[in-house]
Each structure stands twice: as structure tokens, then as C-alpha cells.
Amino acid sequence: MQVPFEPFPPLAGNSQRILALLSFLNKYYRIALVLPQPPVYADELNAYCDEVWCGPFRAEIWAKYPRLHTPFKMLIGLSGVVNAFRYWSLLKPFLNNPFVSKYSVLANSLNMLCRKYRPICLVGQYVWTALPVAVSAKVNKIPAVLDTHDIQAERAKSEVSAGLPQSFDFTWQDELDLLELQDVLLAIQKNEALQLEKSVPNVQVILTEHPFESFNLPPSEPEDRKVLFVGSGALHNVHGLKQFIKDQWPKVRSIVPEAKLRIVGAVCDALDFECKSGSGIELAGVSNDLKKEYSTAAVIINPMLYGSGLKIKSIEAFASGRAMVATKIGVKGLEEASGKAFVETEFENMYEEIARLLTNYDARRRYETEAIVLLRKRFSPEACFSGLRAYLQSLARNM
Prior bond to 7 cis, omega within 30? Predict the structure, then answer.
């Protein structure tokens, strides 16, 4: 499996996604994880896979010879140049694609590992790894599987709709060109699965939502008045939370004066003084005990104003067995459970729904019960990854 960054510690949803997939697949298959940089948490990552590699060296070599990191990296860069000449005909059409410039050198490392282990397939994470994975898979005559995480073009469209500049300069065609090279695309939510099936009809699409184990918490208490947000320092978290604190939180407090907003995660570091000093706001920072944080909450919020893919914080909210109030962006791909397992509302109406759930315990308990039902039915590892496992089993049988 090729990743574009080290997925540990799992402080953001994308890292949680990668580790969940590794953990599930490693029950049935041997997995080599390939990083673009020397690992910092090699021991921790080895708990999720069989081997960790960076370039032509295993993690143990990088750890044993730290003074040789610079020449090692130069060797990897040189191998990338050699790789470009060796597979020029495959790489040339994509040299100007903005998604591939940073990671095209990885193909040589993947080819080396393919020759060493003869895997049943190569799995890439995000469209940034699509080209090296596809080239290496083609050369070694095995399938290329890409976990998209989200459709980048949808994210860009969402950013513009929210009045923000597009964070990365590319076109939908740039993304399509790389998606079409794959044999299988993994879609994290059903809406994007349907879009990929329509846009890339010659590539198999498998829906693989994100799993979460229940925290097994008791129900909230009638007197609980704590509102909880958990999130990384990603820009969409910072943007949505700042707007919520500015526009919605004072209105919640005007209806429920004793309400508290507790903010957990690296998002705390990115908030300005006005947010940090707001009335009834508690900043916890990064927590090593999310179960404890959720146990004292009455309502979870997801006030995202832009984004794509599946908001993993929403699935985590289901796992807590707490009522959640979210924007439409915050629950994309989960629409059929709206009004049952969570409250979906327009951003400007969030305060009304939060106040209602804080003060109406019966309504809050109904959402709590349905959230757990949805989690167990739809978001177990077996339910989320069954389609991918069936595909891999068919590959193994035909080897």
C-alpha cells in the first residue's frame, strides 16, 4: 500500500481511514506499507501491517542509520530519474498533471517491492499516488486499486461555493486522467461512488465507507448541557468552527445560558483569540481519551461549510451514541439517515436544533438510540470493507 504521508498518529480523518483499512486487511493478507518519507512512528505502524518501507529500505534501516538519511534520499531521487527513463512511455503523458509531480519517483520503489513479493495488487491512497501505483501495477501485470478518500474536484467546487479560493490548482480532467488508469476505485460514500461510476465507466467502483467501533457509552443525562466539537486543524474544520462560534454559539447561549461548548483536537491551535475567549467555550486541545470527552457531551456538532468525501467525525459521533447536529456538508452520503440518527439542518438554523436537543431529553435520546443502530448496521469494519474483501478474495483465487 502506497500512502502520500505517514498516517500516524491518527489525529485527522484521513489517517484514521488509512489505519482502519490497514487493520482490517491485515487480518487476511500480508501488507507492506510504503511511505514517501522516512517514518517517525515505524513501531506504531508495524502494528497495522507486516512491513514499513520508504524507498528501497525498510523502516529498520532508516532508524538504524539516521546519519545516512540525506544520501538515502538522494539515492531515492536518483532512482526516480532512472525510473522516468525506464518507463518514459507510461509517464510522459502525465508529466504536467499537477497531482503527480511530487510522487512520480515512487514508482521505482513499488516496482522493487513487486519483484520481491509478487503481491496480488497495489493499493494507493488519494489521487496523488495514482500514477506510481498504476505504472507499477501495469509493469508487474497486477491490478491497481486506488482509495480515493474523496473526489478532489468536488472539494474544489465546495470551496468556491463557500466563497473561498480553490486550495489546489487543477482541473476535473486532470483528476479523471489518473482515475482512468486504475483497475478499481474505492469510494468512501455512496454519492461519490455513483459519480465515479458515471465519470469513469471502464473502472470498477467499490463502495467502502469508513468503519468505527462503538465507544459503548451509557446514554447522556437529562441535565447535560455540553456541546462537543472534535476535529483536526484542517482548514475546513477551522473555517466551519470559526463561523459557528461567531454566528451560532451566541444564539445557543441566549436560549440555554448554561450551555458549554467544548472543543477538542488540533483545531484549538488554529482558533483566534476572539474564538478562544468566547462565552462558555472550553478548549481541550488534543485528547488521548476521546471516550471520556464524548461521555460528558449532550450534543455533537459538525458545522462544516465545505468539503467532500465522508466526514469521519460524523461516524465517530454515531460511535459515541450521542445526538448530532450537522450541516448538509457534514453528513454528505448519509442523507437517508437524516432525521433519524442525526439532525441535518442549514448552518443558520443550527442554534435552534442544538437548543432543542439540550432541553428536550426525550428527543435527544431518540437520536442517541438511532445513532448506535446505524453504526452497528452500516459502519462495522465487515460492513464497510466487505466489497473490497470479496474483490481481493477473487484475485487470490485466480493467482
Answer: no
Whole-prediction pTM: 0.92
Q: Would strands 343-344 and 226-230 be described as parallel, antiparallel, or unpaired?
A: unpaired
Give 132-183 as a DSSP string. Answer: HHHHHHHHHT--EEEE-SS-HHHHHHHHHHTT---SS---HHHHHHHHTT-S
In CATH terms, the fold of domain 13-211+381-397 is: Rossmann fold (3.40.50)
Closest to 233 in 3D by CA, of 293, 286, 287: 286
Distance CA 180, CA 185 (A): 9
**Alpha-carbon span 142 to 356, nearest angstrom:** 54
The Cα 233–Cα 237 span in angstroms is 6
CA dist., res. 101 & res. 255, Å (int): 52
210 dihedral zone (left: phi>0; alpha: psi -120 to 50; beta) = beta
Report the distance separating Cα 3 and Cα 129, nearest Å. Answer: 7
* CATH 3.40.50.2000 in the chain, residue ranges: 226-378
Task: Please give the chain's pLDDT, 399 residues, in tens.
Answer: 999 999 999 989 999 999 999 999 999 999 999 998 888 999 999 999 999 988 767 777 767 666 665 665 655 555 655 666 667 677 778 888 999 866 666 677 788 889 889 999 999 999 999 998 999 999 899 999 999 999 999 999 999 988 888 888 999 999 999 999 999 999 999 999 999 999 999 999 999 999 999 999 999 999 999 999 999 999 999 999 999 999 999 999 999 999 999 999 999 998 877 676 678 999 999 999 999 999 999 999 999 999 999 999 999 999 999 999 999 999 999 999 999 999 999 999 999 999 999 999 999 999 999 999 999 999 999 999 999 999 999 999 887
- Write the CA distances from 350 to 162, 234, 249, 262, 325, integer angstroms: 17, 21, 9, 16, 7
Would you mind telling me the total number of residues written for the chain in this entry? 399
Taking alpha carbons only, the member of 209, 190, 193 closest to residue 201 is: 193
Bridge partner residues of 146 (DSSP): 124, 185
On whether the 226-378 domain is CATH 2.40.420.20, my answer is: no
All three cell numbers of 174? 486532470
Angle between helices 13-25 and 381-397 (to 10 degrees): 50
